[in-house]
Write a structure and sequence with these properties.
Elements: H1 11-19, E1 21-25, H2 44-53, H3 61-71, E2 75-81, H4 110-121, E3 124-129, H5 147-167, E4 173-175, H6 185-191, E5 196-198, E6 206-207, E7 222-223, H7 225-230, E8 244-245, E9 248-253, H8 272-281, E10 288-293, H9 303-319, E11 323-330, E12 333-351, E13 359-368, E14 371-378, E15 385-404, E16 409-416, E17 433-439, E18 449-455, E19 464-472, E20 483-489, E21 492-493, E22 498-500, E23 506-511, E24 518-525, E25 533-540
Parallel strand pairs: 1-2, 1-10, 2-3, 3-4, 4-5, 6-9, 9-10
Antiparallel strand pairs: 7-8, 11-16, 12-15, 12-16, 13-14, 13-15, 17-25, 18-24, 19-23, 19-25, 20-21, 20-24, 22-23
Helix pairs in contact: 3-4, 3-9, 8-9
Length: 543
Amino acid sequence: MDSIYLARPTRAQAAWADMELGLFIHWFPMGWYQDIDEGRLLQPEYQQELLARCTCDTLDTDQWVQSAQDLGAQYLVFVAKHALGFCAWQTEHGQFGMKQVPYQKGQGDVVRDLAASCRKAGIKLGIYLAADTMVMDVGQQGIARDPAFQEEYNRIYRAWLTELLSRYGEVVEVWFDGSLQIEVGDILKQYAPHAMVFQSRYATIRWVGQEEGYASDPAWNSVERYDALSGIATQRHGTPEGQVWLPLECDARIRRDWGYHHNLADNPIKSVDQLMDMYYGSVGRGAVLLLNQAPHPKGHIIPEDMARMKEFGDEIRARFRNRLGTVKGEGMALELHLPEPGPVDHVILMEDIRFGERVRAYRVEAMVAGDWVQVSSGIAVGHKKIDAFPEITTDRLRFTALQTAGTPILRAFTALYAGRIPVRKLAAAPHQEVVMEFGSQIYDHRTGHADFSLALSPFIREAGQYRLAFRLTPDSRDPLVLSEARLMIGGIPQPDYLTKEDADNSFLLYIPGTGPEVVFTAGSTRGSVPSLKGDVVIERVIP
């Protein structure tokens, strides 16, 4: 075995990668107040009105878990508390949760029931616990806008996390959406030492960077140590030379939105073909796909959504069932001999990631009419790479590593025939929107100074990464020089969420959610008023 250094997964990370599919469950007050202004959530009397609506008439956690089984998921992540503040368990802290609702006379506990359903079915349970950005004066990372409230909020949030991780059995994953800054390391170590952690300084898995259900190609599993500690690393931080193993999770929706909509026409469901595109672009690139179901506010998943998840799971099983042969081994080349000539249209490659990600470029060939013919190629393999290609007839295939870091170790080189391959692109081209136009007139004639303050919330329609670019027209005679660029989310500076790109006056923004106000500010100072004209555009980054 080579003695080279490569980032490697822990045993828990390797086991998590093998799960490949998870089910997300977003069930919270969104469906209870769609006809009401969100701002009223801050009013205690309105919270009481919402609690009265929580009857849970058709609550069925067994059905939720059945949907996970229909998909083929091995774990389920439940939104125990979203930014909306409703606690779906019997908490001792706060007055906006299951203790305050009519269901079971205030004794109901959705997390308890779901944990029991998961245990019966052999599905692992994960927990999502958000900061209360919509019902308390707290930012996305759990940072209170009033410093005097910070210590008290830390106490409340830590108590919630302790309850969730100590009462309901083993937890496989903990979601800190938006990268929590409250110290919780001691709680994780005591109650969930082997759980995967999504974001925060304790992250062991990484957000892909958008909510469309696909990873980039290549999708490297390692990142630099600084990026890992930031808590907000995404797929763009992946590098084969990274020191920390931080694999990708692709969260996505079966419908357009995360929460239940009473008007289903405004929240269309994705087709099986669209969902299969996600599968090839996530699991097929070595990531894990976490696909959302949004139960009705009364507690059940509607029949159409149950059926679509099963149709998706059935298609995955059908498409990858006809495996013709597999082989494993070490070395720069590996041949796969099939029992007899026949049609082949997919190969699945898997590295033994216990020894790191070693393949840096490869090709796959098939013996066709006496000649080796290339059928696929790529860069990264990692946990799994699914390559689809037009049908060929062969009884021999060959994998060749073209660039490596050490000797490649393949856990599996598999050929199969599905009878159909993906044909659509995973992502549309980025769409730019003009935020503002500017010119020399924005500069103060006395000081030569200009201030930019851009309200970006109208252009941020979902969580993800965005590019903000200041562009000059060709007839501008002077350059635009910006300084003191700053990103504010919910009134709180977020320096870790803003990166200056190499291109002049181009910035990458990390936006963890759509609730808080997003504002970008920068200054520009010249000795005299410059001669320039241009605009500012924003686009969502599609890796």
